[in-house]
């Protein structure tokens, strides 16, 4: 019996298998069609033809089926047997990401009235500011929704008409159309000294002043991609909120606090919940997300990522900064289990997203005294190659080991501070969706690493399996990371499973410089 005759006889099973494969890998029919075009444009099915194949109304040619098999890293014979293999489907879209929650029992203790009374006291006693608490709330909301905010996407698409790339003239045109004006100022980086006498350069890049003036630092003219992002955030403020004055200040560096903490009374007052701070923080997030959606509209950007296999240094083709490019990956990718870190020394995360809820290597709220130094971002911070560095790691999360792959790069911000951008994925769900046991694989990698001092070459059989997953996901740096040793990393240095535990003490303190005063100085000097 010829292969084509066999395909015709088994069309129903074939369509079901392709549909199940597509869904377990979180691909839309459009995604699968694009991936097939990358393999062989002449033999790739269209979206409508894929729909008919999945419904058993059309039978793919042998060549077309070979293209689909290549995307999913399957043998052609797998599609021709009649086993449905439905038991291994893992639908990541039905699971929420982020930190695991706890049961609020007894329920009466967690009423709105009780929390309104208890939270200010908790913040005061733990030394957590209202601003930090607001960021934690937003991060939990962001991770729970796996960076999926359709209303913000829609608002950005209405403004940008889904155009990509948007040039600087295009962005200026939108600013002008909305009735806003750009006013340039010149200001060098401010040296921020924290309570431990550590100095950091912080540069005010831009801010919005009602009713319609965008103040932009002359330094941004040297970096059009960063200028576009700043203007896009202020366009977002205007599009989402109109001309009101509760807008964010974009800065380079580890950030500036909105209030100067001068004495104990003010410090105590800062450790309370101010609803305006929470609203301000939420607007900052929405405007930033809007800017990413405006510059990288979802459909066009997803196609770009598929063409470039998620290379983190392919941002120039889109005309955005690398940080905006990497953050946008986490919300556009069909695979939902991402993380993103923007890390500064001596140990602060300026930005963080954890769609899979992995432990943090360092804090963006309070100091962590014993961070594990084997996280990729620490290793890259010590190197100044300027090139992406991929790493495969095994990390303990609760009572499970997870395998994750990341790609990191060291760069300088507009104020001249070195920092590391790191984006990565949890590979356990991808392995499970292919019928593999991620815990067994993680255990084998970890055992091999521990016996060699914490890092070792990945066994050939596992390397083959991870290569297959990398190609199915179409994320090139997963496979690139296989060329180096896998490394065991820990939530904290004190939990290190090595015979000689590695600890790395550090201290993070919050700079105290008034953003409001800087803004006032800029506005007065521009008059």
TrEMBL record:
Pfam (any one): HTH_3
UniProt cross-references to SUPFAM superfamilies, sorted A to Z: lambda repressor-like DNA-binding domains
Residue span, HTH cro/C1-type domain: 18-79
CDD domains: HTH_XRE
GO molecular function: DNA binding
This protein's name: DUF3612 domain-containing protein
Record organism: Leucothrix arctica
């Amino acid at each position: 019996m010829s292969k084509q005759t066999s395909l015709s006889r088994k069309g129903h099973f074939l369509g079901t298998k392709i549909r199940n494969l597509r869904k377990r890998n979180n691909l839309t029919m459009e995604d699968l069609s694009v991936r097939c075009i990358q393999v062989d444009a002449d033999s790739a099915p269209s979206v409508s033809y894929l729909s008919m194949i999945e419904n058993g109304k059309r039978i793919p040619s042998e060549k077309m089926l070979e293209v689909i098999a290549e995307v999913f890293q399957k043998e052609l014979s797998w599609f021709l047997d009649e086993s449905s293999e439905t038991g291994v489907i893992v639908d990541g879209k039905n699971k929420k990401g982020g930190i695991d929650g706890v049961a609020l029992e007894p329920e009466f203790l967690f009423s709105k009235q009780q929390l309104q009374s208890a939270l200010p006291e908790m913040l005061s006693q733990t030394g957590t500011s209202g601003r930090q608490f607001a960021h934690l709330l937003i991060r939990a909301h962001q991770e729970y929704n796996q960076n999926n905010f359709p209303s913000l996407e829609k608002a950005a698409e209405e403004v940008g008409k889904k155009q990509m790339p948007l040039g600087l003239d295009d962005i200026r045109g939108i600013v002008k159309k909305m009735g806003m004006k750009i006013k340039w100022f010149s200001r060098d980086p401010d040296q921020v000294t924290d309570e431990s006498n550590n100095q950091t350069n912080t540069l005010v890049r831009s801010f919005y002043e009602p009713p319609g003036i965008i103040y932009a630092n002359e330094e941004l003219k040297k970096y059009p991609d960063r200028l576009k992002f700043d203007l896009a955030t202020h366009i977002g403020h205007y599009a989402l909120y109109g001309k009101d004055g509760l807008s964010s200040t974009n800065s380079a560096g580890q950030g500036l606090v909105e209030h100067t903490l001068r004495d104990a009374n003010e410090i105590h007052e800062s450790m309370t919940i101010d609803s305006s701070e929470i609203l301000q923080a939420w607007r900052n997030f929405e405007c930033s997300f809007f800017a990413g959606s405006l510059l990288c509209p979802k459909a066009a950007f997803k196609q770009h990522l598929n063409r470039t296999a998620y290379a983190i240094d392919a941002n120039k083709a889109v005309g955005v900064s690398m940080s905006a490019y990497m953050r946008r990956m986490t919300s556009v990718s069909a695979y939902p289990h991402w993380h993103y870190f923007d890390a500064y020394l001596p140990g602060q995360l300026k930005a963080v997203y954890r769609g899979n809820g992995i432990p943090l290597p360092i804090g963006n709220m309070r100091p962590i005294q014993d961070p594990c130094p084997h996280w990729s971002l620490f290793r890259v911070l010590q190197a100044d190659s300027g090139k992406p560095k991929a790493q495969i790691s095994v990390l303990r999360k609760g009572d499970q080991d997870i395998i994750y792959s990341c790609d990191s790069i060291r760069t300088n911000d507009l104020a001249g501070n070195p920092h590391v951008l790191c984006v990565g994925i949890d590979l356990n769900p991808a392995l499970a969706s292919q019928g593999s046991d991620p815990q067994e694989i993680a255990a084998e990698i970890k055992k091999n690493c521990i016996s060699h001092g914490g890092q070792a070459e990945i066994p050939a059989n596992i390397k083959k399996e991870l290569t297959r997953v990398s190609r199915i996901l179409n994320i090139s740096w997963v496979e690139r990371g296989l060329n180096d040793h896998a490394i065991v990393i820990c939530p904290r240095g004190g939990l290190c499973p090595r015979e000689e535990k590695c600890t790395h003490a550090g201290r993070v303190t919050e700079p105290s410089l008034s953003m409001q005063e800087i803004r006032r100085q800029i506005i007065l000097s521009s008059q």
